[in-house]
Amino acid sequence: MPIPTYYGDEICYVNGLAYGWNVIKTVLRYKLHKMGLLYASQFDLRRGEKYALKRDRFSSHSQILKQVAESSEGRSLDILDIGCGAGLLASRIAALGHRVVGIDIYDNEQARKNCAEFHVADVEKGFPLEPSDRFDLILFSDVLEHARNPEYVLLRARSHLKANGRIIASSGNVANLYVRLNMLLGRFTYTERGILDKTHCRLFTRGNFIEIVEQCGFRVVKRRATPVPFEFVFGEGMFSRAMSFVNMLGACVWPSLFAYQIILEATLDSNATELLRHVQIHDAEYIEHHPGEAELLFGQSLRVRQDLGAFDNNALAVGTPTRARPQDTSTDQTRRTRRGAR
């Protein structure tokens, strides 16, 4: 049925079925775009906050808050939130009685209010902290995948942890079932946010995310998984909670396939890894030392000094200066005479 549309005095007739179908397709594309399952440039945010706080009980933010509460054991912690954004997670942590220092590459007025201290810096170029600054906990909430060199960031974070400090890191699982099915169909589309966020520089599976953390001198003590954030698609209702619960069951049984995100909690590992040794060797203050080697070198140098001292003392006792012995050329002269006679 044609729908009359008025533009001033002009009447425009459109096909009602085609118009309705286009509306449905546009709404579905918008929902999938907001969910992070596809990218549509017309829905790309240019203003406002791109990332929101995830409130579902199985979400990465909720699980990180739970881990912070368990780690604190009633104590007030010094926490460093790297890539804090607007400080949405930091504000929840501060409400638990902890002191939060935030770092982000972009300035944000809301983050300055939510954090006890806020620094604008690119952590890949260095941490804007004093060498003596130490923290009980360092958070990498959906951050490491945005770094070109996440290993460098993790290695630098070690120097700002207290002796019994911990890190909590979360990242998307690129081996998730949805991504696998899309690749099977020949699709690998970057999105506004989510696992294939177009600003991601590195992509992780559950296995290699654990491997990178351990290579940087940490020992993983807890591993968790999260479901797809259905709340951003269907709202915070009963249906989204039910879908999240079903997805979480699958993630617990087979996390590498059904987990949307991976969350790791790790402590400092005293065993130096190859990556850690590489950083130490390139440190200007690094000195290679093997047990017993220094004592051996010291003994050799001492003996050489003693021999030189004895030689100088003998020379002074005779009353002659210490100079090189003149070369004896008599043998060479005899050989040249014999060659001439021949």
Q: How many distinct beta strands?
A: 9
Euclidean distance between termini CA atoms: 128 Å
What can be said about the biggest beta sheet? 7 strands, mixed
> Mind telling me which CATH architecture of the largest domain this is?
3-Layer(aba) Sandwich
Mean pLDDT: 81
Helix content: 40-55%
Structural class per helix/strand content? alpha/beta
Describe what this molecule looks like in 3D.
By secondary structure, this protein is α/β, with parallel strands linked by helices. It folds into two domains: 2-35; 60-281, Vaccinia Virus protein VP39 (Rossmann fold). Helices cover 42% and strands 18% of the residues. It has 13 helices and nine strands. The strands form two sheets. Strands 5-4-3-6-7-9-8 form a seven-stranded mixed β-sheet, sandwiched between helices. The longest helix is centred in the last third of the chain and has 26 residues, at 293-318. The radius of gyration is 34 Å and the shape is elongated. The model has no long low-confidence stretch (mean pLDDT 81).
